[in-house]
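Q: What would this chain look like folded?
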Amino acid sequence: MATIATMTLGNNGPLVSKLGLGCMRMSSTWGSRTNDEMESIATIQQALDSGINFLNTGDFYGSGHNELLVGKAIKGRRDDAFISVKFGAIFYNGQMLGLDLRPVAIKNFINYSLVRLGIDTIDLYQPCRLNDSVPLEDVIGTVADLIKEGKVRHLGVSEITADQLRRAHAVHPVSALEIGYSLADRQIESDLLPTAKELGIGVVAFANTAEGLLTGDMKAPLPADAYQLHFPRFQGENLINNLAKVELLKQMAVDKGCTPTQLAIAWVNAQGEYIMPLVSMSRRSRLPENIQAMEIAFTADEINQLNTHFAPERFLVVLTCSVSGL
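A: My prediction, written as structure tokens:
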């Protein structure tokens, strides 16, 4: 199995694997079924054995089930894992009701997370989103206080604008920005990515296949219960036209002897040393192919072809919000 490269998360930040493991799909978050728990735990442990130490979870994934699962997987090997936790989303019966970003709520959330994970300190702690209900400075300031207390090591942020990133970084140094990024979802390249690079902030990029669009397996129309149908790019003629764009990726994958999914991950990996592809997995069988994707190299012509073919304006409808990064 290939060796996982490492990267520094932010200026003078912690050393983490260049490939991250997203754990959300191991639990029921949007009303989906919970995957086999023993297989999920085995997947996390094999990922750690393979050198993937960045584990991404959220306190609201499966109403705490995901943190409990991660806690079981890392028991006895805490030093092998770098734990990233998102907070702030309020769910009821599989439906998101909103955000609670009050300082008193954050202080409550983290204590529950520490107990469920069975650890004393969370490596990276971040609001899943920001809104106007609580001043950004109060949210970030609360996490900064938790860092001073020793309950958190590093500050992260997720799904925010370039202006919000600057404001957060001014309150306390931000180590990582978690954001959706793929060949089919590139609007952050104009402002947010350059800002993160300028400030020396690592980028944790989720939804590398644009919710399955770039896997080469998706067909139109989608099943009536497919969660992707919440987003315009997967509806009607939009989906048909967007799938047509994916044919080039499928052909390139054939030419390079890999899968479209591997190419999608490899493209994200190739965008910079400060960018980490965050890949959701719940089965050990997927680990080798995703690790191998990190070894794929592109020629200059191939990169130019992909960047031109998948230019932001080429897709009829961009995905402005992804469930993967909540």
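The chain has one domain: 6-210+261-297.
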